[in-house]
Design a protein that fits this description.
single chain; mainly alpha; 2 helices; 61 residues
Length: 61
């Protein structure tokens, strides 16, 4: 494999987008757990979604 042993470096916008999407997914999973604090989910999820940056253009730096 040509990329073996290399670490891929994301552009800052790509990293922010991926991190925010991951957090939204984790929040959705948390919301489905028994005993989840749904008030917390209701407060955090719109703010987290609003903080999503523009989707990355696919360019790598």
């Amino acid at each position: 494999m040509p990329d073996e042993g290399r670490t891929r470096v994301m552009c800052p916008d790509c990293e922010d987008f991926a991190r925010t999407v991951l957090l939204l997914g984790q929040l959705a999973l948390y919301a489905d757990t028994t005993g989840a604090d749904l008030d917390f989910v209701d407060v955090v999820s719109p703010s987290l979604a609003a903080s999503l940056p523009e989707p990355p253009t696919g360019e790598e730096s």
